[in-house]
Amino acid sequence: MLNKKAGVEKDESSDLIYGIDDTPDIVTTTVLGFQNVITSFGGLVAVPLVIAGMAGFGVTDTAYLVSAALLVSGIVSIIQSKGIGPKFFRVGAGLPTIMGTDFAFVGPAASVIATGGIAAYFGGTMLASLLELGMSYFIKPLMKFFPPVVTGSVIALMGMTLMSVAMEWAAGGLGSATYGAPLNLAIAVIVFLIIVLINHYAGKKFAPLAVLLGAAIGYFICIPLGMVDFQQVRDASWFALPQLFKYGISFKLEYALPFLTGYLVTIIETVGVMQTLGQVTKTELKDEDIAAGVRADAVGSWIGPLFGSGPTATFSQNAGLIPMTRNASRKVAIAAGFIMILMSLFPKFATLVSIMPMPVLGGAGLLMFGNVAAAGIQSLSRVKFNNRNMLIVAGALAVGLGVSFRPEVTAGLPAFLGGLFSSGISAGTIVALLLNIILKEQQETVEIQEAV
Q1: Residue 380 falls within a domain, yes or no?
Q2: Helix H or strand E segment including 103
Q3: Is 161 exposed, middle or buried (CB count within 10 Å of its CB: 0-12, 13-18, 19+)?
Q4: How far apart are CA 432 and CA 255, in angstroms?
Q5: Element (H, E) at 387
Q6: Which backbone phi and psi does 175 adopt, to 5 degrees?
């Protein structure tokens, strides 16, 4: 069946409870949307907190940057999940996607903010996003370099590189005074098991809610254990409106250049995420759908600074929710976008979610990211593992995981190369692409002897 709205073909043999075009009832849609928000919340607020520290902001301005990030993430998530605009400038792949600020831009942000302040950061990222916008029109010819052996490797690598993030959450979060404490690990294990059992035994009605229910139970377990600080909720404002150009915007080429590498990395990672989403939603993507997904990143990165947020990128975390909860409805992702917009207007509610103990997220994250890795392995199972393909998969995983485990090895590279290889996902993808080009297919010759 052809999905006319997104231009994608859906696999009717899918075991998904909710497919791309399905519309769950309003309560289910809202609850599943909120589930998407809480699983990505750490990533949504982490970058604005770091940027606020670089800019020397106090509590009030820091809270505003977080609210602005939620607002923009909500707007761009709706655009990416729905897909808008005419064919020649379609923005958004039409797949269930959560968008947010990305760490690829944090490195160059430090030097730009130190030179020109927060206005230079906003102006520089807006100008540099034009590169991604232009590159989105060249995605189609580039896609011939992404055969199944490359895409399967990238999808598997995406899940594997995120495992360390989930483990850090399970241990209590990097820098935590109780990092690795048995109590933290016990909470993560409990949440992990609750999600597994609900997902497997609860049936079609509650299985899609497994992550939300597991996180909620884990959250409540942590309250009497003294792991939740409600003082932050009491200190937060009840209501806050967004403001255009609150901190100004400074357009100078010198501020844009440091961010170009970040956008190249984002393009590579977004292509990988789009392919992952196609795999887990049982959807056959066209090249123009992936291009529209990249374009949504660029448009979001132009919108963000207007409200005081950084550039946006397609989040990979939520792709793990889809195979686990068997929910691929774009309506749910759109609902998540509206929830993020509402949370940006009511800081107390956003804070209530943000104080969720990290081990709770860790227990959920392990399963979600594991599902992404499993989807990549499933994709690779359809690839013929001859010598050439083995080398491509081995090289991509080795370099990608190596950089993920030891990111400091790229610190001595020139700035441009250091930026491209700063992420395990981008590093592994680049290696897979290069090996796919360098290693030519060897034709097997068979000699047929005829009996005389």
Answers
A1: yes
A2: none
A3: buried
A4: 32
A5: helix 387-405
A6: 90, -5
> Are 297 and 314 in contact, with CB atoms under 8 Å apart?
yes
| C-alpha separations of 202 from 194, 223, 329, 346, 374 in Å | 11, 26, 20, 33, 22
In a domain, 452, yes or no: no
DSSP state at residue 383: S
- Taking the CB of residue 237, how many other CB atoms lie within 10 A of it? 13
Kind and range of the H or E run holding 449: none
Q: Where in the sequence is the domain holding 347, given as residue range(s)?
A: 10-437
Give the CA-trace dihedral at 265, 268, 270, 271, to 10 degrees.
170
Residue 188 to residue 184: CA distance in whole angstroms = 6
Residues 6+ apart with CB under 8 A from 97: 77, 80, 81, 273, 277, 293, 314, 315, 318, 333
Closest CA to 75 of 291, 338, 292: 338
CA distance 417 to 433: 16
Please give the single-letter amino acid code of residue 186. A
SS3 for 375?
helix
The residue assigned the tokens 């290693």 is 439
For residue 245, the 8-state DSSP code is: T
> How far, in Å, are 264, 270, 273 from residue 134 at the CA level?
11, 15, 19
Flag whether 443 is in a domain. no
**Residue 226 main-chain phi, psi, to 5 deg:** 75, 25
Q: How many domains does the chain have?
A: 1
In a domain, 38, yes or no: yes
- The model's pTM: 0.72
**What pLDDT digit, counting tens, does each position of 25-71 carry?**
898 899 889 888 877 776 777 678 777 777 777 667 777 888 888 99
* Average confidence (pLDDT) over 267-290: 85
